[in-house]
Automatic annotation (TrEMBL):
Residues 134-186 form the RNA polymerase sigma factor 70 region 4 type domain. It holds the Pfam family Sigma70_r4_2. Belongs to the sigma-70 factor family. ECF subfamily. Signal peptide: none annotated. It comes from Nitrospirillum amazonense. GO terms for molecular function: DNA binding; sigma factor activity. Residues 42-106 form the RNA polymerase sigma-70 region domain. Keywords: DNA-binding, Sigma factor, Transcription, Transcription regulation. InterPro entries: RNA_pol_sigma-70-like, RNA_pol_sigma-70_dom, RNA_pol_sigma70_ECF_CS, RNA_pol_sigma70_r2, RNA_pol_sigma70_r4_t2, RNA_pol_sigma_r2, RNA_pol_sigma_r3/r4-like, WH-like_DNA-bd_sf. This is RNA polymerase sigma factor.
Amino acid sequence: MTGQQPWGRLPAAHGDDGADDDVLMARVAQGDERALRQVGQRHYAATWRLAKRLLTSEAEADDVAQEVLVRVWNHAARWTPGRAQLSTWLYTVTYRLCLDRLRGRRHAPLEAAMDVADPSDGAAETMERRSEQRRVRDALASLPEKQRAALVLFYYQEMPGPQASAVLGLNLRAYWSLLYRARGALERALTRGGKEPFGRKGEP
């Protein structure tokens, strides 16, 4: 599998009816499987991508994304409308499930966070690009899990700081501090001198 939505026997949702996430969660809490499928149609791909980037395994990303959907079904009755964005909660669950798996590993390189070399490039350029990808992958793999996650959420998932901080269970100031330290640690690991590997609008 490669991120395919695993709803099997769930009834078809017949498209998105426009109901907001809070309404859908209320329906899921009442046992509405079509509402669960609609939640999945909206959010499954994003949670799968995050899991894939953190775990570098499509099979594990499939498992995590499916487990997130199970958590939606099991905990929908506890959902409090207006308390937070559903997407933030789903990212948080995804991150925690991935963290459990990462802690059971010795190494967890972020191969999926790397761009794939363009096969139309010349052989020398392709090899150079792949070598650079490996350097960044290995540097990311050397970081503590939270620093790694801070970089992935902000730069690869392009998640706003307030949402990323909520996913990691930090206040915004602590998140920016973590991201700053993570960037510094990555730059030192890359031994790139003054050249920064990342840059994105919206940083503090």
